[in-house]
Design goal:
Mean pLDDT: 92
Shape: globular
Largest sheet: 6 strands, antiparallel
Strand content: 25-35%
Length: 249
Amino acid sequence: MSGVELRYGGATDVGLVREVNEDAFLARPPVFVVADGMGGHEGGDVASAIVVEEFDRLAESGYDPTRGPEAVAATLDACHTRILEHVARQRAAGHSSYQSGTTAVAALLVEVDGEPRWLVANVGDSRAYRVVEGRLEQVSVDHSLVQELVDAGSITPADAAHHPERNVVTRALGGPARPEADYFLLPLADHPRLVLCSDGVNGMLDDAEIERVLAAAPDPAQAATDLVAAAVEAGGEDNATVTVVDVVG
């Protein structure tokens, strides 16, 4: 979208426990994505790569900025269909228990009433945050079992961070049901920094630590690198991936 100047960066790391990095990210203005694959080697990594490929195609071909939700929904639908086709081919080849799926969180520039906005969409528990006057705020809402328990009042947010089923997602691309994404519109001027990450970051770092790392790195590429490094240093129990986007003009 013309008239909007962005600076951005992304980083990913396999972590200290996993053998394969099933995360993937895209930073191709005006489209930014983080996907966290599930299903093991050649399962999750294929699914997350499909998400990046489809959103990269969207960035390359362009989209009507006044119809952002429709463009994202069509792209997510294409991702889901391709993942299911991939699973079907693997099972037909004799891998009867083969699984492949992924979360996805995306942000892209759209136009509302002639003004640019961020459109954020998520499926699963990969997150979008915004930084408002130096304070970190979560934009997306996790599609996860522990989030449902928090919403029901069964556990506290502090309990959720250590719950044994905290990695169970309730929506995913490639799952048994075609998932619906949640959508959020954000004004650019009020939220100059946007952060997308997989749960390998927010699962290792609480919001206060994420906020501290972001505040110490004015450059978005450095901020992404530093957040991933902090997640690995904190234990690196999962793949860790971040994209950071600043609106600078």
